[in-house]
Amino acid sequence: MIIQLEPQSDIPIYTQLTNQIIEGIATGFLQPGHSLPSVRALAADLGVNMHTVNKSYHELEKKGIISIIPKSGAVVRPRKEISQEAGHAERIFAALRPVIAEALVVGLDQQQIEKQLISIIHDLKEIKS
Amino acid sequence: MIIQLEPQSDIPIYTQLTNQIIEGIATGFLQPGHSLPSVRALAADLGVNMHTVNKSYHELEKKGIISIIPKSGAVVRPRKEISQEAGHAERIFAALRPVIAEALVVGLDQQQIEKQLISIIHDLKEIKS
DNA sequence: TGTTTGTTCTATAAAATATAGAACAGTTCT
DNA sequence: AGAACTGTTCTATATTTTATAGAACAAACA
């Protein structure tokens, strides 16, 4: 899986990493049960600090997307386990709201937003590799 | 217009303010041509620092949503002026992508996301006062 | 003519971000 | 059993971001 980090971005490295791992799961590249690289291995691979990767993994765990087994490793949780938990929709829709508000203010209409939504979903749903 | 800031939030105060002003414009509460309060007045009203409000206004200006007239004040830009500018869609859809990816990973399907999208739009489109 | 405006500057403090290195104890593998 | 690897925890440092505070300025405004 190719991960591209931009150190110059205003988005923190650990957030970029978190988002790309989520995308990796969404696309099916990282499947349920899959082990993630160790924090040290991935840090070395990406050229960042171990603690930065660790922070990303814990963010993913907080979101309920992966399980961190102490002294062992991190694993993508089964889809059913993830979806069983409550609070996901609230968190995500709360993040969605300001984006939609801005879209409307800059003149995008419901059709355009829906079209892009579908485009993103189709793009992610294409299982790569 | 009621603005509620949460100092304890992980979202910076100036970002919260920016988002709520955008919502205010989306709902029609703040209409094109409307003057925003002076940075001092709003800061005093909200109980935050002048520079925090100033940063929010400049964020809104950077997004192309308001005009800051030096030594005079800040004004909501006309809708046509805003939508004429390029780059809006790219910026917004880039912000949309990680949210959608997480939604899919958590088990939300296209229908549910679309339903919520429409719900948010309808909620914002209701002109309040 | 005062008042208000955004602007600019210095200053300070706390929190967030990122890196670095070390040590620990449990896990995994040979 | 032993070696390698794992996440965890700790100290440390540096930079950036966030937020506040106060002062001064010149243009705009009433």
From TrEMBL, chains A, B:
Start and end residues of each HTH gntR-type domain: 13-76
Gene3D superfamilies xref list: Winged helix-like DNA-binding domain superfamily/Winged helix DNA-binding domain
Pfam families, sorted: GntR
Transmembrane segments: none
Record CDD domains: WHTH_GntR
Keywords: DNA-binding, Transcription, Transcription regulation
GO MF annotations, alphabetized: DNA binding; DNA-binding transcription factor activity
This protein's name: GntR family transcriptional regulator
Organism: Mesobacillus foraminis
Organism lineage: Bacteria, Bacillati, Bacillota, Bacilli, Bacillales
